[in-house]
Amino acid sequence: MLTADQQVLIVLEIAKIVATSQKLEEMLENLLLCLVGELDMDAGALLLYEPGEDHLVVKAARGYHIAPLREIRLAPGEAITGRIFQRGIAELYNTPETIAEARANMSPHNREMFIRATEGLAQPQSVLCAPLITGQTKIGALILENRRAPDHLDSLDLTFLKHVADLVALAVGNAYLREELQAVQALSEANRLKAELISTLAHEMRTPLTSIKGYTTALLMEETAFSPETQREFLQIIDEECDVLQDLIHDLLESSVIDAGFLKLEIQPVVMPRLARMVAEDIARRSRQHRIVVDFPDDFPLVDADPDRIAQVLRNLLDNAVKYSPNSGLIVVRGEVRPDHVVISVSDQGVGIAPEHLSRLFEKFFRIKSGLGRHVVGSGLGLPIARTIVESHGGHIWAESQVGKGSTFYFTLPLGGLGQEKEVE
Ligand code: ADP
């Protein structure tokens, strides 16, 4: 039996553990370690009830083979712990026979796991088990085993253990509340980001829409007759702004497709210089101020890739090179061959990117607050999409840059074949 001094020390130790543990699991492990040691026990386990599954699961244990013990799912009423949990009353089993009898109703699966968990260990001689109850709610059970001597424990120990179990239950209840609070905070943060995103996108879309609406209204005004050149200029602007809107919507759709894991690659041998030239010409048609040069060596090998997706990567990089080089300049698309991969790069002479932003460029919705003096329309999705595509080909993508001097985006594609079709998880 424990002396009063010992009991006080145990309670103090428990209070210390509860006050200092950061995580529920860590707290349960420490509590169990303390109880097994201070009560001179050989083994013990803390089980918590999972209401959705209607079973008890081991959350912390000492003196067992832990892996099989964690596989046990005890129904209320099953074995000692299940029974004590169901009845809500602590009990002392003081002989090996009463212990074996109380464990007789274990399901075959649980029995097998329990046998494995106690393989090579001595049989218990006495067992103390107490339910964990907070208020009206049963949340689990605590079991302690002595494997050396029967009658090692008495009813006073049981009374003390009941109080200890109440303290543990209180601590677990508080930890649950803390976890719930954190989950609520995480949810509200996610909602905040979503709201912010919607407002950003609404703004991004309003800019081209306002311009389309303005020029269309002007063209429709009957009292003003615009010259054919002006009309053509207005229509040109409307056309460009429609492209901007289309790109934004396309990015958004693509991003949700990638999130949902439906990106299918149709791999085939690709003539990369030709693909790069095609995309470059397309972009050059849209932006006449920039000079785009495509530079690939003559012996550039065929690359196994999905041509539409790689064209999309190149288009995103070239679009950015144009968007973020407001003072025009030279843009170079270059291909280089390495022993087991190719490197394709897009470099510009634009505004550049500060070192602290380089690592975040490929995060979804990350956009640098533009220092361009005018608002640049974008979704912050082009680079994350490019990364998903490149990585699903087995390549890498990264950027190097100097503020005010320009940026180079690189991506690699492996040589040597990827197989016919690959799906991204
Ligand atoms: P978006 O261009 O739609 O904003 P991206 O994901 O393509 O989204 O790019 C993310 C951010 O990275 C951009 O907002 C821009 O700040 C920066 N960025 C991308 N490419 C360049 C570039 N070539 N030069 C300078 N900044 C760039």
Jot down its keywords.
5-stranded mixed beta sheet, 2 domains, elongated, 12 helices, 425 residues, 6-stranded antiparallel beta sheet, Heat Shock Protein 90, disordered C terminus
Shape: elongated
Helix content: 40-55%
CATH topology grouping of the largest domain: Beta-Lactamase
Mean pLDDT: 89
For the largest beta-sheet, the strand count, sense and barrel status come to:
6 strands, antiparallel
Give me the side-by-side strand order of the main sheet: 3-2-1-6-5-4
Number of strands: 15
CATH class of the largest domain: Alpha Beta
The helix/strand order is: HHEEHEHEHHEEHHEEHEEHEEHHEEE
Distance between the termini: 59 Å
The CATH homology group name of the largest domain = GAF domain
DSSP strand (E) fraction? 15-25%
Secondary-structure class: alpha+beta
SS element count, helices: 12
Work out the count of structural domains. 2
Give an account of the 3D structure.
This protein is of the alpha+beta class. It has 2 domains: 4-181, Beta-Lactamase (2-Layer Sandwich), CATH 3.30.450.40; 263-424, Histidine kinase-like ATPase, C-terminal domain (Heat Shock Protein 90, 2-Layer Sandwich), CATH 3.30.565. It contains 12 helices and 15 strands. The protein has helices spanning 4-20, 24-38, 66-70, 79-87, 96-102, 108-117, 155-220, 228-259, 272-286, 307-323, 355-358, 382-392, and strands at 43-50, 55-62, 73-74, 91-93, 126-134, 137-146, 264-266, 268-270, 290-295, 303-305, 329-337, 341-347, 397-402, 406-414, 421-423. The strands form 4 sheets. The chain has a 6-stranded antiparallel sheet, with helices on both faces. Strands 9-11-12-14-13 form a 5-stranded mixed sheet. Strand 11 and strand 12 (341-347) form a beta hairpin. The chain starts with a helix and ends with a strand. The model is unreliable at 418-425 (pLDDT under 50). Bound molecules: adenosine-5'-diphosphate (ADP). Adenosine-5'-diphosphate (ADP) is lined by residues 316, 320-321, 324, 348, 350-351, 353, 361, 366-368, 378-383, 407.
